[in-house]
Backbone:
């Protein structure tokens, strides 16, 4: 990186005068007989030396000092990335360019006819482009599906057919993490095109880290990457490439009131029993899983109850079931159904190469990779002309990603603590709902979407912990308001999903904070806050 | 002839103007790298030299010393001097600024023959391509002074 020497014409007079005074003083110390206050030496030597000295001082302050002082480098300017990159390269920390979001798009056509989606085809939503990295061919019969890039057109709703393709964002960034169901527009012609929407929540999109992010990484980089104490545990987990996006991890062990599991004969946790809570993403991811449900019973009114089991591999980290819809129905035109019952059970059958935790009750497996889900849903009697014995349903699950990967890491013989009993769970979710009012002068341009995005970004960057102050959120809102506008009546609701009982809400105006009365495992050490922009209601009043 | 002993305990400056004599009218010529280069001066010579630096420097020409210098040379370059009367007027106008600058740089510990008292324009001659000024510079010591001539030395 080239040094930028300041112009001699752009120096501060105060800086120059200070340098001249300093040089005159030093000259007097060196040669006391030379008149330092006036004359040729003063005018030609000291003065000009002072100008150059001030320029060098500025150069050192702006260009050199940051190389010696990380705090200066980050405080000087967040845009001064080159210096921070060079400094941190000494600690083997490199700035990534951010990740491109990936996901699946469901393409709906009005005719059952073969469709080819070429490689490089683009889909657009809100100015963001997603592209295919390979070509896909939708086939009309299962027998014609010959390669991994072939897709089967399946009936979706009335006279519609759909198939699913994989796309990746053209530009890296967290804004590419679009939500399930959001509509995309192809930038090219698709025969018989009806619609396209995100099949699941997109994931993997991440922004290039800021200077402050890199400093934090460096500190963790300096930390020993071993599971010996809480400080090094997060660094240890993040040292795995696949787990580098983990936001926070909290280790609960013997002595902590949040510990859920006892060890041995008595229900007392010993030192090797650990409950690890992980916040692995800004928001829970919505994923679709197609399952065959079996009919359990048919009531007199012909309403039918259907049941399916989701095994621990798919149920890993699942927080709740969003909705259930027969696979042949279009989720964009038909709202799904909530499960009539959701039962979590444990599956602790051995996994090769992993130490298995002791899970004595089903509820202890909740939010972990050892939970299985038994889902039941009831459909009304007029739903089918003739009631079949089994039906394929699309089950939309909200889950924390990477839970099984973290469990595998801490349970492996190579990395895990020998003799330990570790269970990894998703952080207990506290879903925040925020409402408020903005009063603004008539004609003001209030960008509500930008405010919601900023609020969500703030809350979803919090580590594990349950404290959100409305004043802090109000401050973020005001960053987007003109000077004579203001917000008021901010109210937050936190809905906490618990391990062994239904969810419960806490409402407050000033801040969300856990009070007494919660199960002992619900605390600031185990619970994380999530704020979906869709859960923000801001009303604007113009005066 | 002055000797090294005359400089004992005195503040010195590099000699920039050649031609100093012990008595009589003196024409000083700029000469930092000429025959007398490498010389130092002190006393009234140093005072006169500093006055000349102030006199020849246009005010504002030193970006980070905006108070130093005077307007004489600026006005001279702008052709504002056409008659001998113009020279006297502008010289006297400049003297207020130069005097303030000279006094600001002095300290009480300076010798009296290094402290500025006055500068008087005694004679002006305008010829075809030349403007000659005869200036009398007086130190606080007045006529009671010791003339110390420049001596060659390596600073």
Residues:
């Amino acid at each position: 990186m080239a040094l930028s020497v300041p112009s001699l014409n752009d120096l501060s007079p105060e800086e120059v005068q200070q340098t001249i005074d300093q040089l005159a003083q030093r000259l007097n110390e060196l040669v006391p007989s030379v008149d330092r206050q006036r004359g040729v030496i003063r005018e030609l030597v000291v003065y000009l030396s002072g100008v150059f000295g001030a320029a060098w001082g500025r150069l050192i302050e702006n260009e050199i000092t940051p190389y010696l002082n990380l705090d200066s480098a980050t405080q000087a300017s967040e845009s001064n990335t080159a210096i921070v990159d060079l400094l941190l390269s000494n600690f083997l920390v490199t700035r990534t360019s951010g990740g491109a979001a990936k996901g699946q798009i469901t393409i709906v056509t009005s005719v059952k006819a073969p469709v080819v989606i070429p490689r490089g085809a683009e889909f657009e939503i809100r100015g963001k482009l997603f592209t295919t990295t390979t070509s896909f061919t939708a086939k009309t019969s299962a027998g014609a599906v010959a390669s991994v890039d072939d897709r089967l057109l399946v009936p979706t709703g009335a006279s519609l057919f759909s198939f699913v393709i994989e796309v990746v964002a053209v530009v890296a960034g967290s804004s590419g993490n679009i939500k399930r169901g959001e509509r995309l527009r192809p930038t090219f012609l698709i025969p018989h095109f009806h619609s396209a929407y995100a099949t699941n929540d997109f994931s993997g999109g991440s922004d290039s880290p800021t200077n402050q992010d890199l400093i934090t990484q460096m500190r963790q980089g300096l930390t020993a990457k071993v599971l010996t104490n809480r400080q090094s545990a997060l660094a240890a987990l993040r040292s795995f490439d696949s787990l580098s996006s983990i936001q926070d991890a909290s280790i609960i062990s013997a002595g902590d009131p949040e510990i859920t599991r006892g060890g041995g004969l008595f229900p007392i946790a010993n030192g090797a029993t650990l409950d690890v809570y992980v916040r692995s993403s800004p928001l829970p991811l919505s994923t679709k899983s197609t399952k065959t449900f079996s009919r359990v019973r048919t009531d007199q009114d012909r309403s039918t109850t259907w049941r399916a089991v989701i095994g621990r591999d798919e149920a890993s980290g699942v927080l709740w079931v969003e909705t259930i819809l027969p696979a042949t129905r279009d989720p964009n035109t038909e709202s799904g159904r909530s499960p009539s019952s959701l039962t979590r059970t444990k599956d602790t059958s051995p996994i090769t190469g992993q130490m298995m935790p002791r899970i004595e009750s089903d509820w202890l497996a909740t939010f972990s990779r050892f939970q299985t889900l038994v889902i039941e849903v009831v459909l009304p009697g007029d739903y089918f002309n003739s009631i079949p014995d089994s039906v394929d349903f699309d089950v939309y699950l909200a889950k924390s990603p990477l839970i099984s990967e973290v469990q595998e890491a801490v349970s492996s013989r190579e990395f895990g603590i020998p003799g330990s009993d570790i269970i990894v769970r998703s952080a207990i979710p506290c879903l925040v709902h925020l409402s408020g009012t903005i009063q603004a002068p008539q004609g003001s341009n209030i960008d509500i979407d930008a405010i919601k995005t900023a609020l969500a970004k703030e809350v979803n960057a919090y580590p594990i912990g349950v404290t959100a102050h409305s004043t802090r959120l109000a401050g973020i809102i005001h960053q987007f308001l003109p000077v004579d506008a203001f917000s008021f009546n901010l109210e937050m609701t936190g809905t906490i999903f618990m391990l062994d009982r239904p969810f419960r809400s806490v409402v407050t105006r000033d801040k969300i904070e856990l009070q007494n009365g919660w199960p002992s495992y619900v605390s600031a050490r185990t619970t994380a806050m999530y704020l979906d922009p869709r859960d923000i209601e801001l009303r604007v009043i113009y005066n | 002839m002055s000797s090294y002993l005359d400089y004992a305990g005195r503040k010195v400056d590099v000699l920039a103007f050649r031609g100093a004599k012990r008595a009589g009218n003196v024409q000083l010529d700029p000469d930092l790298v000429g025959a007398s280069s490498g010389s130092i001066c002190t006393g009234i010579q140093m005072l006169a030299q500093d006055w000349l630096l102030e006199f020849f420097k246009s005010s504002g020409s030193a970006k980070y010393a905006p108070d130093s210098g005077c307007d004489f040379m600026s006005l001279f370059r702008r052709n504002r001097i056409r008659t001998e009367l113009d020279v006297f007027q502008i010289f006297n106008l400049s003297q207020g600024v130069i005097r303030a600058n000279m006094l600001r740089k002095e300290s009480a510990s300076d010798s009296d023959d290094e402290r500025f008292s006055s500068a008087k324009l005694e004679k002006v001659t305008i010829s075809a391509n030349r403007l000659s000024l005869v200036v009398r510079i007086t130190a606080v010591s007045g006529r009671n002074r010791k003339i110390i001539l420049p001596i060659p030395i390596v600073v």
